[in-house]
């Protein structure tokens, strides 16, 4: 007998090649086999190869943070000592959460929006929250890519426009002098604050949209759209460039950097540990947050990527490999950065020494009287100046000397910490200017930043697009149109980042939209998987997919260690926010420096909205569904293997040749309207294996 029947359809049901599910009698003496024809559901898109998946994960995880935030943290938090809390946090929270997201995405084959609804509709807010955070992060992240485009275009000019200060003519005096703002700051700082972003004095003064930045942002979003408009079919090919090219540049930079004068000073500064820093709780919080952001956790992108994997993919091996490659890349990039910064520090030190020698010669009317035929040079400056010249000169020229003499120190140069845009667009470009063939190195550096930024942006937006496309209301919209609509809306909203206050807005979004929300999402992910879905069920799923059961390390971190670690980060972050009122670095043209300014009242409100947008959907949707204010058609996802005993005494009966159209029911939905499948006079077992 054959029949078509409404059946609860588990997620990822894998039918036989002919699309037939067979029901065999428990007792061989009972009547024959019931066969139900089930049309094979439309297959989900899949990666073209395992390499595409791995490179996409590398592009997502190995982003700009490894190049400009990790070196800053190493510089600020104890040098080599910072690697200790970083590695510990990678083991306690990084690897477990990475495998958790890969595993649940691969198991349920949905984006984050669908995954959490399938596990429990009450926790569907997790998918909504991660989608919102990913969208907000994508808004400002693409502006950074636009800045990289602008610097890349200017890198083809010779000499580099950020190598010298521009001149201005004072007509009344018929003089041509360097611009005062540039003289007060530096060539690279002036190019960044005045010629690139044209910074306004406060966040309240927008200064209008800068057309050159608007064009670069448009180019960035068009490029993102072209690369992700067909989903992983298009982005999966682009990642061969965005994932591999940065490593080529890092290797080239390494080969050049270690041969530079002063590279050893930079590397010595990097690897010299200050163990006292480990007693500072802020260092541990920095390490935990860096692991969290560098792996791309809680964005929903890893879940989306894993949903395109085959069911038997070894996601545990992938998670371990990705954590190792992230640690390696961050360390390798930091070696490159510190080697170049060491070169810059020594170059600035030598300039400082030459300046002091010239001033001393100009000040002293009888230089040879005090020199005693001892020449002062760059090599002996540290020994000769404080021991011989300074004691004798200051007796006669102390006031005049101290007006003109600078404090020259390589260590002080290396201790000048700068992060984010300050490191990439000001400090590192200053080092590039000092390199022979500076145009070539500038092109390489900003091409590398572009590849890193675009790779991460593809992953971030894929998490958004996958969630939207998986929604029924958008399932029939062509993906190119849907992706284009999201990119266009992002471009229009992103114009606020192209104003004179654009950098201040980027800093606000980076601090509030992409921080606390992600941490809270990750905390609830571990809780929902372990205590709602069930840690045993999840480990069973992992065992079926990879062929081995996760060990005690994985289970202990999922159930106890990772949630406690993340909760500690949340508490520490809340305390830090309360004890340190938010501010932003406002550029003061008259002084040539960035000064910390408190946010005005309206900006504080925007900060609060951005902060809450990342986690409020979780409790809101939970309570609304608990109170039945929102209808849902999914229930808690059931076990991967179901056996349903059917008897004529407890179930309805399928009559003769009556046929009904088959439809996909949500996972776990009860099929109360017609009862189960039975056959007169027999008891049957239905086994569904997915």
UniProtKB/TrEMBL annotation:
Localization annotation: Membrane
Molecular function (GO) terms listed?
amino acid:sodium symporter activity; glycine transmembrane transporter activity; L-amino acid transmembrane transporter activity; metal ion binding
Positions bound to Na(+):
62, 66, 294, 452, 456
Q: What is its main location?
A: membrane
Q: Alphabetically, which GO biological process terms does the record hold?
A: amino acid import across plasma membrane
* UniProt keyword annotations, A-Z: Glycoprotein, Membrane, Metal-binding, Sodium, Symport, Transmembrane, Transmembrane helix, Transport
Q: What is a single cellular component term in the Gene Ontology annotation?
A: plasma membrane
Question: InterPro entries from the xrefs?
Answer: Na/ntran_symport, Neutral_aa_SLC6, SNS_sf
Highest taxon listed in the record's lineage? Eukaryota
Key word Transmembrane present: yes
Q: How does it sit in the membrane?
A: Multi-pass membrane protein
Provide the transmembrane region boundaries. Answer: 53-71, 83-104, 125-153, 211-228, 240-263, 283-307, 319-341, 440-460, 481-506, 512-535, 556-578, 598-623
The record's family statement is: Belongs to the sodium:neurotransmitter symporter (SNF) (TC 2.A.22) family.
Question: What name appears for this protein in its UniProt entry?
Answer: Transporter
- What high-level taxonomic lineage is stated for the organism? Eukaryota, Metazoa, Ecdysozoa, Arthropoda, Crustacea
């Amino acid at each position: 007998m054959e029949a078509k029947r409404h059946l609860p359809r588990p997620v990822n049901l894998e039918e036989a090649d002919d699309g037939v599910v067979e029901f065999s009698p428990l007792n061989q003496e009972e009547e024959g086999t019931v066969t139900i024809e089930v049309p094979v559901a439309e297959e989900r898109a899949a990666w073209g190869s395992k390499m595409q998946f791995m490179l996409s994960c590398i592009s997502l995880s190995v982003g700009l943070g490894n190049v400009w935030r990790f070196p800053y943290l190493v510089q600020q938090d104890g040098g080599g000592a910072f690697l200790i809390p970083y590695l510990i946090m990678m083991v306690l929270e990084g690897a477990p959460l990475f495998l958790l997201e890969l595993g649940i995405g691969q198991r349920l084959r949905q984006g984050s929006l669908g995954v959490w609804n399938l596990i429990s509709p009450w926790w569907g807010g997790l998918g909504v929250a991660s989608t919102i955070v990913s969208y907000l992060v994508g808004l400002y992240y693409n502006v950074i890519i636009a800045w990289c485009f602008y610097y890349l275009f200017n890198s083809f000019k010779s000499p580099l426009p950020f190598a010298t200060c521009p001149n201005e003519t004072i007509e009344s005096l018929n003089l041509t002098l360097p611009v005062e703002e540039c003289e007060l700051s530096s060539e690279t700082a002036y190019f960044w604050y005045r010629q690139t972003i044209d910074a306004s004095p406060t966040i309240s003064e927008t200064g209008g949209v800068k057309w050159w930045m608007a064009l670069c942002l448009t180019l960035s979003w068009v490029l993102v759209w072209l690369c992700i408009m067909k989903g992983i079919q298009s982005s999966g090919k682009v990642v061969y460039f965005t994932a591999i090219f940065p490593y080529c540049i890092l290797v080239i930079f390494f080969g050049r950097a270690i041969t530079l004068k002063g590279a050893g000073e930079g590397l010595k500064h990097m690897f010299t540990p200050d163990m006292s820093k480990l007693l500072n709780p802020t260092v541990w919080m920095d390490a935990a947050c860096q692991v969290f952001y560098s792996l791309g956790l809680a964005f929903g992108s890893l879940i989306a990527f894993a949903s395109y994997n085959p069911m038997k993919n070894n996601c545990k091996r992938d998670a371990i490999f990705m954590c190792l490659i992230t640690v390696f890349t961050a360390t390798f990039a930091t070696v490159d950065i510190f080697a170049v910064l060491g070169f810059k520090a020594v170059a600035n030190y030598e300039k400082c020494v030459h300046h002091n020698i010239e001033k001393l010669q100009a000040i002293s009317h009888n230089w040879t009287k005090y020199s005693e035929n001892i020449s002062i040079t760059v090599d002996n400056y540290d020994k000769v100046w404080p021991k011989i010249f300074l004691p004798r000169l200051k007796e006669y020229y102390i006031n005049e000397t101290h007006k003109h003499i600078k404090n020259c120190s390589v260590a002080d140069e290396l201790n000048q910490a700068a992060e984010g845009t300050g490191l990439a667009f000001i400090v590192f470009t200053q080092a590039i200017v000092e390199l022979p063939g500076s145009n070539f190195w500038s092109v390489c550096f900003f091409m590398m930043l572009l590849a890193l930024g675009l790779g991460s942006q593809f992953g971030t937006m894929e998490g958004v697009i996958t969630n939207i496309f998986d929604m029924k209301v958008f399932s029939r919209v062509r993906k190119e149109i849907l992706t284009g609509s999201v990119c266009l809306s992002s471009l229009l909203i992103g114009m606020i980042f192209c104003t004179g206050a654009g950098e201040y807005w980027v800093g606000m979004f980076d601090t509030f939209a992409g921080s606390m929300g992600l941490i809270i999402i990750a905390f609830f992910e571990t809780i929902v998987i372990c205590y709602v879905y069930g840690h045993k069920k999840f480990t069973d799923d992992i065992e079926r997919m990879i062929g081995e059961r996760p060990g005690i390390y994985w289970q202990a971190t999922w159930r106890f260690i990772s949630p406690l670690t993340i909760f500690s980060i949340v508490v520490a972050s809340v305390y830090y926010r309360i004890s340190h009122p938010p501010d932003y670095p406002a550029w003061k043209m008259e002084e040539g420096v960035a000064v910390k300014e408190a946010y005005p009242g309206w900006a504080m409100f925007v900060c609060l909205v951005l902060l809450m947008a990342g986690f409020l959907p979780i409790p809101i949707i939970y309570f609304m569904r608990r109170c039945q204010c929102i209808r849902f058609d999914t229930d808690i996802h059931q076990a991967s293997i179901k056996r349903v005993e059917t008897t004529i005494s407890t179930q309805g009966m399928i009559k003769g040749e009556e046929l009904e159209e088959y439809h996909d029911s949500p996972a776990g939905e009860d099929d109360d309207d017609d009862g189960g499948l039975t056959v007169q006079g027999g008891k049957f077992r239905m086994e569904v294996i997915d």
